[in-house]
Specification:
single chain; alpha+beta; Arc Repressor Mutant, subunit A; 2 domains; 6-stranded antiparallel beta sheet; two-stranded antiparallel sheet
């Protein structure tokens, strides 16, 4: 990297000046996953300290514009997938954004659901449900880890179907069952070691968690919790002051 100019003292801190320079570099010159100049190169090019360089890079990492790989350097992050909250499957959501979805089935079984799930699906005591764990992928990159519980009554033989495709499409096409309403809760978590390994992020990385209880008419069908990578996914919401306030609920991870 050739020398450009020494950053000057002034009302704008040097780390903020360097952040702006790096942001322009990201947006105009570097492709996703391309490395940025090393700390030493940036210190030499702009006459700043290592602390200043790390502050500027750290801000861009926290904003999702860069990502760091231990022992290898810092790289340009891919743009986040932006989602408007709506009732759709992951498959349809990704395709609508021009991305190629894929699914890896990690678990598919009949099992006794936790109390929270049984109550949400209005299942009698000791009633089993389908339990699925799936890794959701967009353009070859892990995007979300999903754990779903599904009522067996309206979905006989579900485990015999292709569980890598959209479940909503399977429900509609094979069971004439359309998920037409849902209650959804969103909260933030950090990735535990096992989840981080599956999603390709470091342990402690930020995640967006979504818990959805989906219904077909008055029939509760699914209790689904998904953990999305915070560095790859962003949500937009429309707010309406004319809607009545929702009753307070307790949010949190699955039981």
């Amino acid at each position: 990297m050739t020398h450009r100019h020494v950053l000057s003292d002034g009302p704008v801190p040097k780390h903020a000046q360097l952040r702006g320079i790096l942001l322009e570099l990201i947006e105009s010159e570097l492709a996703p996953d391309a490395p940025i100049p090393s700390e030493r190169e940036l210190m030499s090019a702009y006459g700043v300290s290592r602390m200043t360089v790390r502050e500027a890079i750290g801000q861009l990492v926290s904003e999702g514009r860069l990502y760091s790989v231990r022992g290898k350097g810092t790289f340009v992050a891919r743009p986040r997938v932006e989602s408007q909250l709506h009732l759709a499957s992951f498959t349809d959501d990704m395709r609508r954004r021009g991305l190629s979805p894929a699914t890896v089935v990690l678990r598919a079984e009949r099992a006794a659901p936790p109390t929270q799930v049984r109550n949400a699906l209005r299942l009698p005591a000791r009633q089993q449900a389908y339990h699925l764990e799936r890794l959701r992928i967009a353009d070859g990159v892990p995007m979300a880890l999903e754990e779903g519980w599904y009522a067996t009554g309206p979905l006989p033989g579900l485990l015999d179907h292709d569980l890598t495709r959209s479940l909503y499409a399977t429900f509609a096409g094979d069971y004439d069952l359309v998920i037409d309403s849902a209650r959804q809760t969103v909260w933030a978590e950090v990735a535990e070691r096992a989840t981080a390994r599956l999603l390709g992020v470091r342990a402690g990385a930020p995640l967006l968690a979504f818990q959805r209880i989906g219904s077909a008419g008055h029939l509760a069908v699914e209790h689904n919790t998904s953990w999305y990578r915070g560095d790859r996914y962003r949500v937009h919401m429309s707010l309406d002051s004319t809607l009545p306030p929702a009753a307070p609920t307790r949010s949190g991870g699955p039981s």
